[in-house]
Amino acid sequence: MAFVTKFFSDLGQWINEHITKPEIIASIFWIVVKIILIYVVAKVCIKIADKTIAHMISARDKSPLKFDRRRTNTIGSLIHNLIAYTINLICIMLILGQVGLNIGPLLAGAGVLGLAIGFGAQSLVKDVITGFFIIFEDQFGVGDVIQIDSFKGTVEEIGIRVTRIKSWTGEVHIIPNGNIKQVTNFSTYNSLAVVDVTIPLHLDIDRATEILKETVKQVQLLTDDIVKEPEVLGVQMVGTTDLKIRIIAECKPTRQFNVTRLLNIEIKKQLNITQIEVL
């Protein structure tokens, strides 16, 4: 008990001798003012950055080019976090400098630590940077059918570090963004269904072609996947006993396989009705 009493007594005496001096009080006051000013300026800078980001996103939405709103928000969030972390770090360093802490060794230590982390996490940094540019450049989106190397499927998730695609047989492939060298996007433009009809060489080509033209017109009415009337291009190949007549149909992205199957079924039915043999 006596020790505690002596401690507070010594503390009070030290305060009376040092803190109560006018120059000390003025110095503490200005340090507090500077700290508050640094804090306020940092918050104002973050607010200005947020306003600028919001303006950029608004301008991007009004662009004639159509961008995915989710991606735009993701980019805005990434830029906001980067700016906020940088400004807050500078703010902390300035405040530490105001209270008399020598931040030189701290910066040097942080630099060495950052260098060590950079060497140890090169693949992670590469994944993050690549993921940022995938989102920023709008290379592909959730729901797109893409192929990365030998993996083909529908994009389920685009992350900053990894991309998930699901194949048509159900497997989910998780690919680090840094490993993505080349991407084929099958969902950007309309696809093309190609059907070759093989018929005997002795048949009347003009009659077979007319039947096929009428059939493909009817097929277009059966599905919304075909965006324009299919075309019967004509004889694609002539063999010793048969020939091939090629049909093409422009359809919605990634729907060419469904359209091809539908064309095959309807053509077969119609040629059976007209008693034209299909090889």
UniProtKB/TrEMBL annotation:
Ranges where the Mechanosensitive ion channel MscS domain occurs: 124-187
Localisation per UniProt entry: Cell membrane
Keyword annotations from UniProtKB, A to Z: Cell membrane, Membrane, Transmembrane, Transmembrane helix
InterPro entries in the cross-refs: LSM_dom_sf, MS_channel_1st, MscS_beta-dom_sf, MscS_channel_2nd, MscS_channel_C_sf, MscS_channel_TM-2, YbiO_bact
Domain Mechanosensitive ion channel transmembrane helices 2/3: 81-122
Pfam families the record matches: MS_channel_1st, MS_channel_2nd
Membrane topology category: Multi-pass membrane protein
Protein name: Mechanosensitive ion channel
Organism per entry: Paenibacillus germinis
Lineage: Bacteria, Bacillati, Bacillota, Bacilli, Bacillales
